Amino acid sequence: MKKSVFFGALTLAGLGAGVAAAGTLDDVKARGKLNCGVTTGLVGFAAPDANGEWKGFDVGVCRAVAAAVLGDATAVEFVPTTGKTRFTALASGEIDMLARNTTWTFSRDVDLKFTFVGVNYYDGQGFMVPKELGVSSAKELDGATVCIQTGTTTELNLADFFRANNISYEPVPIETNAEGQQQYLAGACDTYTTDASGLAATRATFENPGDHVLLPEIVSKEPLGPLVRHGDNEWGDVVRWTLNALITAEELGVTSTNIADMSAAPGDNPEVNRLLGTEGNLGEMLGLSADWAKNAIMAGGNYGELFEQNIGESTSIGLARGLNAQWTDGGLIYSPPFR
Amino acid sequence: MTTITDPPKESFRLSQLIYDTRYRSLTFQAIAAMVLALSIWYLGNNLIQNLRAAGLNISFDFLRDTANYDISQRLIEYDSQSSHSRAAIVGVLNTLLVAFLACITATIFGVIAGVLRLSNNWLVRKLMAFYVEIFRNIPVLIWIIIIFTIMTAVLPGPRAFRGDEPEASMVLDAFAFTNRGIYTPGPVWGPGSMVVVATFIASIFGIVAYRKYATNLLYATGRLLPTFWPSVGLFFLPTILMYFIMGKPIGLDIPELTGFNFSGGIKIGGPLIALWFALSIYTGAFIAENVRAGIQAVSKGQTEAAGALGLRPGRVMNLVVLPQALRVIIPPLISNYLNITKNSSLAIAVGYADITATLGGITLNQTGRAIECVLLLMLFYLTISLLISAFMNVYNSSIKLKER
């Protein structure tokens, strides 16, 4: 009798401790699936293809994390979120991480209590107008009707830009990118504004992309990156270093085609060895297997490959690397060392 | 011989709380109240603990912060430097505006369709049945989107009005129907215009007084005064006279195409029109059924009796049937008005800046204060609904059957 009470109490205490200590990493491992928040559909970044399979640059990050943690790039449940629902979904634990071209800002990081683990795309807000409007600068947009996705930083930048230039505009708030596209094409607004990459992606889906131009002004800094909840640093580290692994892989020339050879045996470059787990125990430190980074890179290729396949110049979206080139090529993409 | 005995003194036993009908209801009510209080306490406590665990607190300070976003549809002065609370007020006014407009038009649609559903004309009757069944059986959100999409796709953009050979032109050179909204001439109030407005208000009172006088005269002496043409005359003549006497103080500001959009005049935005119209026709279909039910609830004998007295069909409807039918119509009408007000929160689907879109949308998103914003939203809708309900109940008690 006494014994059973004792064991009962012990079980309860154990359960309590388990609940308190179980981080997102353990949850994901126990579930066998990563819940990843993405957009409701932005071609190139995250959108289901004709077979209903999610494809895109942000999707690639989700798959890399799933591969690093679970060893299976397909063990991802994609949760489409709008600009409005994304933070609630993350804060409430409905999703484990958010990879939804979300701008890293002070208030989101500090006040909303999220941790941005890095930047996977350096963007800026731009404007798209029909060519026939004859507008060549955003400063000529006085009195224009502007379609804008509600609940985004672009909404605030827009107000700031027009106020700073002392010109007026009429905002048309819309919920999703698809709605914005429809309104813009119907002529219900003169210009559509969002991140320049998003504009390029949207324009690529138009019937006549050539009839629309992106204005030269980039009115804001929009560092887009994946984020996780505040306070779970182990999980934050996993997502951060998975992203860094993709970036470092490109820098070191590790691609999805040569990774099988490079990870078979330790090579000459110690950093490659540490990254791929043939030397040292970086995986163990993260609470993952030794080949975590290898799995992550094999999921969709390194950072450069993801870029080229989804949004690069060879795709219909046709974005140049620009700021998003490796630091060795004059860009801003830079990963801390694996050591 | 009778002996008077005291009734046996009942001692209270605990089992009476359940088995005695005098106490049973009290017992269950007390239990229900306790369960309710406990669950509220549990939920509240849960919320506070979880907020504390997440390091968050409940604070309404954000309402004083700068909103930093713009709203195109607004009834009061507002810009991106105003506070979040002012943005919320803009939203409140927009909600009230669309709810008010939709309640009026829905009632008009509903009464017309409801009366016509009982028409003797087969075609009219079937058309109205078709309207009711189509509109009330498709969700209102879909109607809002359908109407908005049709509007943006069919109506021309402002660009179509430009050039020497424009594709579109303004109606009567004063009204522009574009896919961004309808632009109408707006009044310009010059000096002395208030006198004209005052005259107009005075003539409205005059019409009411005259009609009251005519009714009293009819009841007192049986003499029937004409009311229609004198009313029309009173409505227009004094105001028009005063307008010219004061030297045409009220001008018209006609919308003009400048830059990207029309400017001047009054703009009724596309989102407002779509939302207003969708709410009106959707709820109008429900009201039509209420009206039909109300009319059919008045026994046919009443109509026949009124006919036997020599009343014409129009008067039978106005004087005999509708006053009695209102008793049946008003209570469900109240809930239809409440539905309009609550359904107006679907405004964000077309980008109309109601309270759900400003406070519950952009503000919530930019500040991350979800709990506070949702609490405020709940409080607002509850207050408005209770007010409408209270107001309509007063009206209901004024027209309901007076039992003496």
UniProtKB/TrEMBL annotation, chain A:
- Which family does the entry's similarity section mention? Belongs to the bacterial solute-binding protein 3 family.
Give the gene name.
Answer: aapJ
Matching InterPro entries: Bact_solute-bind_prot3, Solute-binding_3/MltF_N
Alphabetical list of SMART domains matching this protein? PBPb
One BP term from GO: amino acid transport
Q: Where is the Solute-binding protein family 3/N-terminal domain?
A: 33-262
Q: Which residues form the signal peptide?
A: 1-22
Q: Which UniProt keywords apply?
A: Signal, Transport
What is the protein name stated in its UniProt record? General L-amino acid-binding periplasmic protein AapJ
CDD domains in UniProt: PBP2_BztA
Q: Which PANTHER family match?
A: AMINO ACID ABC TRANSPORTER PERMEASE, AMINO-ACID ABC TRANSPORTER-BINDING PROTEIN YHDW-RELATED
From TrEMBL, chain B:
Q: Name one GO biological process term.
A: amino acid transport
Give compartment(s).
Cell inner membrane; Cell membrane
Recorded GO MF terms: transmembrane transporter activity
Residue intervals passing through the bilayer: 23-43, 87-116, 137-155, 188-210, 222-246, 266-288, 374-395
Does this UniProt record's set of keywords contain Ribosomal protein?
no
User: What is the predominant subcellular site recorded for this chain?
Assistant: membrane
- Its GO CC terms? ATP-binding cassette (ABC) transporter complex
Q: Which InterPro entries match?
A: AA_ABC_transptr_permease_3TM, ArtM/GltK/GlnP/TcyL/YhdX-like, MetI-like, MetI-like_sf
- Decide whether keyword Transport is in the record: yes
Residues annotated as domain ABC transmembrane type-1: 92-392
Q: How is the protein disposed in the membrane? A: Multi-pass membrane protein
Top-level taxon: Bacteria
Q: Which UniProt keywords apply?
A: Amino-acid transport, Cell membrane, Membrane, Transmembrane, Transmembrane helix, Transport
Q: Which PANTHER family match?
A: AMINO-ACID ABC TRANSPORTER PERMEASE PROTEIN YHDX-RELATED, MEMBRANE COMPONENT OF AMINO ACID ABC TRANSPORTER
- Family note: Belongs to the binding-protein-dependent transport system permease family. HisMQ subfamily.
This chain belongs to the protein called Putative glutamine ABC transporter permease protein GlnM
Recorded source organism is Roseovarius aestuarii
User: Coding gene?
Assistant: glnM
